[in-house]
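User: Can you write out an input/output pair for a complex, sequences first and structure second?

Assistant: Here is one pair. Inputs:
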Amino acid sequence: MKDRNTFIHYVHMTVKKSYVLAEMETRKLLHDPTELVSRAVQPLLWLGIFGQALSRVRAIPTPEGLTYMQFIVPGILTQSVVFVSIFYGLYIIMDRDTGILQKLLVTPTPRLALVWGKMISAGIRGLSQAVIVCLFALLMRIELHLTVLSAIGVVIIVMLGAGFFTGLSMIIASIVKTRERFMGIGQVITLPLFFASNAIYPVSIMPDWLRVVATINPLSYMVSGLRTLMLTGGSAGVGFDMAVLACATFLISIVSAWMYPKVVI
Amino acid sequence: MNILEVEGLTKRFGDFTAVNELTFQVGAGEIFGFLGPNGAGKSTTIKMLITLLKPSGGTARVDGHDIRQGSAGVRNAIGYVPQMISVDGTLTAYENLMLMARLYDVPRKERAGRVKEMLSFLRLEEHTDSLVRTFSGGMVRKMEVGQAMLHRPKVLLLDEPTTGLDPVARQSVWERLLELNEMFGTTIFFSTHNMEEADGVSDRVAIMNRGKLAAIGATDGLKAKTGKPEATLEDVFIFYTGNKMQETGNLRDIRRARRTEKRLG
């Protein structure tokens, strides 16, 4: 009975303090929203230049009824969310260098809450990217089929995906420990994850070995779920994509909570 | 009654022994100066006392809680001010204090009142809604003390709290600290390499040199042992260690101190 109460107290504290930390991170964003503008440039370039160019080549097969521009919108959104999230490891190193992390670690806050707080914050930043990508799509007359329900699904998938890559970046930060090394490793991990997924071309055109990588790459499940929700307005297979992302995000948050306090040592 | 009991505390990093079998006690309500040059092991000792680092040997009890087994109890009993700048410059003074009040579980009904009281106590009420990055060095340090005191801890641990401050700001910070000590009976444990500062405020001091405790006691008693009629704590350090303060310290410590000084302007 005592163990059960202790567990319930731990879960309650974790959820409560994750919310506190996420709220403070969001306040920072509201004090200085210029970051949102600068982050809008990347998806604009990918859609406006890369997407336009490749859609004219007509070399990449897309599912029936979809143009290539439609096909890559969820991929570009996924990429934007990953790029936002992967920098959270860098923020952890910066917080360590400024003493903020040490101060947080000394409070009676569960380690998991410190990770979840960052994950939720990355999710909120990721949602701002979703709004930007959808606006660009609208301006470029790319047809999306969003309903209220599918929009809710998009929110969930963006939050889960952002959480996963935030957790991954915090683990990387706890291993490499310096900004310089993190910048190098961050690039090395992000780009292969992006290209070894179904973000900008379908899995069907990949060689066998790359299909295996794409199958175990959580980014593929994020793209797949978003593609169904944003382009069909339906939900076929989305439950499975969400379940894979939820499990991967939960597991990586546990590993991250265990590893990232080591960044201060 | 002792609030802090350190017994044979040791920390090794590979072959290097940073802290070597440290044993001492600090009484409740005492102002205790922890002195030594950069690299003497002061910060490592503090990191063990606040449960950020696991000791390689020995242990310590803070308000009766063992740092090895009772980290939750220790964290609730202490307030911590790191050497580096640990307030978040991208949040306002009110938000910075409220964040800590919520993370330390200050009851909801009391939070806003305590934050306002603290701002008033720190003479920062006019800057409640200003972003902390616009503050002077002295104001930043006072904010850090405020953050660490909101939950009314029994022990306040400060790691080089006045590094980088000019004499006026230093005095202002100490006025607030001494007032807190008098109002709440808070034990103040602070590290410094500034002997003059320690001499002025400490009830007792401990002098660290190369990971070992070189001397401990009331400043007058330690000075008397040197045999010099107008001895300073610098003379005490030389008497017990055979070195001058400037002869020790490593590159990382100096770099960190300089970074803090630079950020405090």
